[in-house]
Amino acid sequence: MSIKVRYFASLKERLGHAETELELSAPLSAGQIWQRLNPAIPLPEGTLTAINMEYASLDSLLTDGDELAFFPPVTGG
Amino acid sequence: MQIKLSAEPFNPWQILHDYETEQRQLAGQYGATAVFVGTMRDFNQGDDVVVMQLDHYPGMTEKQLTRIVEQAQQQWAILDGLLLHRVGKIEPNDTLVIVAVWSAHRGDAFDASRFIMEALKKQAPFWKQETLSSGEVRWVSSNSDGYLKPAHNAK
After folding, report:
1. Is A55 on the interface with B (CB under 8 A)?
2. A18 and A7 Cβ atoms separated by less than 8 Å
3. What is the ipTM for the molecules in this complex?
């Protein structure tokens, strides 16, 4: 099972990369994927999560081919 | 209905003039047009800002903007709408965003345009990074609630 994980804005800068591919043998939630990829970094407060470009909760389970994104509060307009 | 992102500067009044001229089928139907134009200031939180980088999430940004406009269409009797938002490198006095709503009566145009703007501020994935006159580069941490009096932004 293959998942694409993307980071934006200050989170991308802090982690030093914009995206990564992850192979999973069993389904994980968005929050569990963050922990697996960034074990030393607690998810910053206020971080938003999207799955396939729709807002999602950290409990949402990912399935094969999904695109998961983490980003800070939005500041457009 | 037009929803677009622009990496190039634009003149909001020219855009609105051209769009309204193209939408000839609407002439005579609308009695109200509400327009919001957001412009980049040269100050924020007490500091002088010289340039700004506006990042977005290609695909998701357009999807969320479309969703917001569709929600407005469901709640108010809108004849047409225009939403244009800048991305990329932005300088003070550049237009950041245009929201325009055409309707038969003023209430729908006023309320729908306000809804679109406030929802965009909360939900559309854009991120501002400011470069200050001191050389410091910083990310804007969050948007304020537009319904609160922005006393902290007054200077």
Report:
1. yes
2. yes
3. 0.96
